[in-house]
Design goal:
The protein has 422 residues and is mainly α. It is built from 16 helices and no strands. Helix content is 78%, strand content 0%. The longest helix has 41 residues.
Length: 422
């Protein structure tokens, strides 16, 4: 039956549904809380904790494999996530909205991380190998489209509604209800449109006891890899400086000029980060993948380390100069995001390098958990640190915080031929 349904009917929508909750929980929520008056320190600390489901998802991935089919997990998690976002919308005007919406965002994040496990596994089961390669670009494109829609279109919509009504609460209620409706519609759509591949069976790995025994062995083998502590340090520190920027850069763009910010509106922010920034990020990532395929990861590792870190210095200039021209600010953000996309290509490929071997899929999932931890932990203190140092000194600190990334990169093992296209 899998062959009777065109992948064009479900691959784009599947990865649209995967990207939307992720962008909402980890990026859009920062703007949401900033608009509603929550302090920078509280926003960065508590929204960074929303990474936790992605950090821990390797631990419950066996449940997705044992309990029911991946197909069922996909559409149920989409409905669950859509329901959680509808509840966020309803909770905006109530007392203690911050605590309530955070709990609901955490539920949406849990559903999204679980959906990631099921969707990526389903993709491998439902498509023959030749089509997996063909549609890899499609899935990445629609995942990015989801980011543009959330960080760009949705935030622009909020800005326009706020201009008309004068109420951020009303604007965000409308926005979350809209995204909730989209996710619920996608859940119902996938309930009927997703194929039913023969290999998508509950508990296909055998008994639960045997599966968990094998799962434990997989973890043990991962931590027996040569130079494992160096590898883990690389996963945690590669983005140590950059990981402190995501929330604070948003605060900086939105805060008033007397607070050291650039006083952008939500409308301007949506265009800047949701459209210009995502386009630059995607361009950098595509170029990074291409150049690695030509000369290998070892050749490009250090240029990519420089590319992901040095453009952060643009924020130092922005903080001191406080330019008013939107295109000047946009050019600065575009350069930083392009460098991030270019440099992140090396990180993604090195995780594949670490994961090679008998349990490559599971070991890659473990790597992604450490990758998420590398974003979550520095984000916990970044808002508090910014409030203590001010924007100018904070951005200088971010540059100094890149030093551990360079130090650990001198110690990692890497084959000169890895990443080259034969």
């Amino acid at each position: 039956m899998a062959g009777k349904k065109s992948p064009w009917g479900w691959v784009p929508t599947l990865y649209l549904a995967e990207g939307l909750p992720y962008a909402l929980a980890l990026a859009v929520s920062v703007v949401f809380y900033k608009n509603l008056g929550v302090s920078n320190g509280d926003i960065s600390f508590y929204t960074s904790l929303l990474y936790l489901p992605w950090v821990l998802k390797p631990l419950w991935s066996p449940a997705v494999d044992i309990l029911k089919t991946r197909r069922l997990w996909i559409w149920v998690m989409q409905l669950f996530g859509g329901g959680a976002l509808a509840a966020v919308a309803l909770a905006v005007p109530v007392p203690h909205f911050f605590q309530i919406t955070l709990a609901l965002f955490w539920l949406a994040a849990f559903a999204s991380a679980t959906h990631d496990i099921a969707a990526d596994g389903f993709y491998l089961l439902a498509l023959p190998e030749r089509e997996q390669a063909l549609f890899s670009g499609v899935r990445n494109t629609f995942y990015r489209v989801a980011n543009i829609a959330a960080q760009g279109g949705l935030v622009i919509l909020v800005g326009r509604i706020h201009q008309r009504t004068g109420s951020y609460a009303t604007a965000w209620m409308v926005a979350f209800m809209l995204v909730s409706g989209i996710l619920l519609a996608l859940g119902f759509y996938h309930r009927f449109i997703l194929p039913r591949p023969a290999g998508d069976l509950a508990g296909k790995a055998g008994s639960g006891e045997m599966f968990f025994a094998n799962f434990g062995e997989t973890f043990v083998e991962f931590f027996r890899k040569p130079k494992i502590f160096t590898l883990l340090a690389f996963l945690l520190l590669y983005r140590f400086g950059e990981a402190q920027l995501p929330s604070v850069s948003k605060f900086f763009l939105l805060d008033s000029r007397d607070q050291g910010g650039l006083a952008l509106t939500d409308d301007q922010y949506g265009w800047l980060y949701g459209i210009i920034g995502v386009a630059a990020l995607l361009s950098g990532g595509l170029l990074g993948g291409y150049v690695i395929s030509r000369r290998g990861l070892k050749f490009w590792l250090w240029p990519m380390l420089l590319a992901i870190h040095l453009p952060d210095a643009i924020f130092i200039w922005l903080a001191y100069a406080q330019p008013r021209n939107f295109f000047t600010i946009g050019a600065g953000v575009a350069v930083e995001q392009f460098g991030y996309g270019f440099g992140f290509a090396a990180f993604m490929l090195y995780m594949i390098y670490i994961a090679r071997g008998r349990h490559a899929t599971a070991h890659y999932a473990i790597c992604t958990g450490f990758m998420a931890a590398g974003m979550m932990l520095p984000g916990l203190w970044s808002g508090w640190l910014q409030q203590s140092l001010g924007y100018r000194h904070f951005f200088i600190w971010v540059i100094l915080a890149t030093i551990p990334s360079f130090l650990v990169a001198t110690k990692i093992p890497l084959s000169p031929e890895f990443g080259k296209r034969n």
